[in-house]
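User: ok so my PI wants both of these folded by tonight, can you help

Assistant: No problem, let's get them done. Here's the first:
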Amino acid sequence: QVKLVESGGGVVQPGGSLRLSCAASGFTFSTNVMTWVRQAPGKALEWVSTVSSDGRIPAYEDSVKGRFTISRDNAKNTLYLQMNSLKFDDTARYYCARGYKLAYDIRGQGTQVTVSS
């Protein structure tokens, strides 16, 4: 069974950091491009970041460039998103997904990130 399970969300103050993880199972993780997307209440789903199957080529949405870092550990079948300098606008439910940007075929249940003072 193909499964993606996110963790690491929480409540953080502006300027703080969080590291999200996504544990993958049921498919060959190391051969798939992986992506993080997010959705804030009342807003459309938004692409955040994508990484190549070997982890060497990341891509970021403009608003998170320089603050977020996507990475993966193919030996552990795990995708990560290190989020620094968090802003109120980063508040959303974050999902990991298999695929390129918004052209993904599966995603997890998500983890909530709330930036609040």
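One down. Here's the second:
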Amino acid sequence: EVHVVESGGGLVQVGGSLRLSCSASGFAFEYAAISWFRQAPGKQREGVGCIGKNNYTVLAAPVKGRFTISRDNAKATAYLQMNDLKPEDSAVYYCGESCSPSTWGQGTQVFVSA
């Protein structure tokens, strides 16, 4: 059974940084793509980016140049490094197996204060 747990969210000021973690189990992590999504209040969930098994990464336009995705296969964990955070980055962040996951964790809340 696919299981992911997101962590690392919190309150940060504009321009600050956070690193989110996605701990995974129940599937062959080293062969899977891992994606990050986010959902702000009243908005649809949107893709942030996805990292393939070969570390090829795709990022959404609003976060390109500020966010990076990495992975540690030995720990079955993926990371979302977020720099130069803006108020519009405030959302619940989710990770998932594949670039179009069907199973979600509980998410981790990020709030960027102006």
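Strands lie at 3-7, 10-13, 18-25, 34-39, 46-51, 57-59, 67-72, 77-82, 91-97, 108-113. The two ends are 40 Å apart (CA to CA). Good luck tonight!
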